[in-house]
Amino acid sequence: MTEQQTKIDLKNLSPDELLEFLSGMGKERFRSEQLLRWIYKRGVTDLEQMTDLSKALRAELSDKVFISDWQPVAVETSSDGTRKYLFRLEDGSSVETVRIPMDNDRSTLCISTQVGCAMQCDFCLTGSFGFTRNLTAAEIVNQVCAVAKEGPINNIVLMGMGEPLHNLDNVVRALKILYAPAGLDYGTRKVTLSTCGLVPQMAELGKRITVNLAVSLNATTDEVRDKLMPVNKRYPLKELMAACRNYPLPSHRKITFEYILIRDLNDSLADAKRMIKLLHGIKAMVNLIPFNEHEGSSYRSPDQKTIEIFQTYLLDHDVVAVRRASKGQDISAACGQLKGKLEKNQSSNEPI
Fold first, then answer.
1. Looking at the 3D structure of the chain, how many domains does it have?
2. Is residue 296 within 8 Å of residue 255, measured between CB atoms?
3. Between vectors from CA 153 to CA 155 and to CA 143, what angle results, nearest 5°?
4. Residue 27: per-residue pLDDT
5. How many CA atoms lie within 13 A of 221 on its CB side?
6. How many helices (H) and strands (E) does the chain have?
7. What pLDDT score was predicted for residue 108?
8. In a domain, 71, yes or no
9. Is residue 90 classed as helix, strand or coil in its secondary structure?
10. Which of 120, 127, 134, 158 is most buried (most C-beta within 10 Å)?
């Protein structure tokens, strides 16, 4: 059996769970904060380097635990500074993570929560891989830890491979690690979770933890959304928008609605008008995303004029509408492209 099968990865434990684990060993409460600081503040993965722990405690812990540490197996860098990382997991699976440069030398990290995805959205490359499994809390957090070795990360978005609310328990556990002052110490304003619209899990998320919410909308009629996002057949627009109205938002925050603009499908002025009605009564902003064209998809991005008309209509009706700048266009930009490239090349024994 491997170390991962016989020992506990400390990165899989939330701060409360780590405290409970150490208490079960008869250790003092402050030891949990010591361990958190060594792991997340200093990036130490070797217990022997934790010099403020006694040799006896280090020896006792080494029999029970380990601390995972990641290195990417592939990295692509765009001319605009976007970096995409592919990580190989213990079971041979792989996931992607993307560091996106922002203004004023800041950066946002887009992380994955599953290997593949079960939601089967028609426009999404990740969905074509099918669903393999959920990521553990450690596998979610390790994406942040690995990329942070290259420099500070200012914001985190759970918008990579997978549906975060389909992996709710591990995602909540990971968020608690991200938020912990002795952990990665991100404020709740710095972390955003994106969902395709799993209505019951949205309510559960709101009860369990605070996080910025982004909802992948992508259509203004059930007919079109059924085609693009099969989840809509289970939770149609009326139910989804009701869930958004009921979501517990902290003061001065809004729900972000992500809207992928696809030529001749959801980019008309009529769609913009319907969106105004859908968003009535919701503290909302809209993130307009021209479709990122990729091999194997028949969908295309609208022209600039169409995008401008759509955005202007929303703005003229007091809806904050921002066009997301496309990043990483000269690398494997769409989520799943680097994974697909690696696996295709491996099957043919070619280098990336």
1. 2
2. no
3. 95
4. 93
5. 10
6. 13, 14
7. 97
8. no
9. coil
10. 158
CA distance 183 to 277: 42
Instruction: Provide the pairing of β-strand 65-66 with 74-77.
Output: unpaired
Residues belonging to the active site: 96, 335
Instruction: Identify the pLDDT of residue 346.
Output: 47
Q: Which of 145, 192, 138 is nearest to 164 (CA)?
A: 192
Q: Residue 55 to residues 22, 236, 311: CA-CA distances in angstroms? A: 16, 58, 62
For 214, residues 6+ apart whose C-beta sits below 8 A from its C-beta are 157, 159, 192, 193, 194, 195, 255, 256, 257, 258, 287
Q: Model confidence over 132-149: pLDDT tens digits? A: 999 999 999 999 999 999
100 and 45 Cβ atoms separated by less than 8 Å:
no
Tell me, yes or no, whether 45 and 186 share the same domain. no
Do residues 134 and 46 both lie within one domain? no
Give pLDDT, residue 352: 39
Same domain, yes or no, for 60 and 95?
no
User: For residue 179, which phi and psi values (nearest 5 degrees)?
Assistant: -85, -25
Q: Which positions of the chain have pLDDT values less than 50?
A: 339, 346-352
172-201: pLDDT as tens digits: 999 999 999 999 999 999 999 999 999 999
The whole-angstrom separation of Cα 352 and Cα 50 is 38
Q: Which one, of 211, 273, 197, lies nearest residue 242 by Cα?
A: 197
pLDDT at 42: 95
**What's the rounded Cα separation, in Å, for the pair 192 and 141?**
14
User: What integer pLDDT is reported at residue 124 of this predicted model?
Assistant: 85
What range does the domain containing 10 cover? 3-66
Give the pairing of strands 107-110 and 94-101: antiparallel
pTM above 0.85, yes or no: yes
CATH number at residue 169: 3.20.20.70
Phi/psi at 109 (5° precision): -110, 125
The confidence score (pLDDT) of residue 342 equals 53
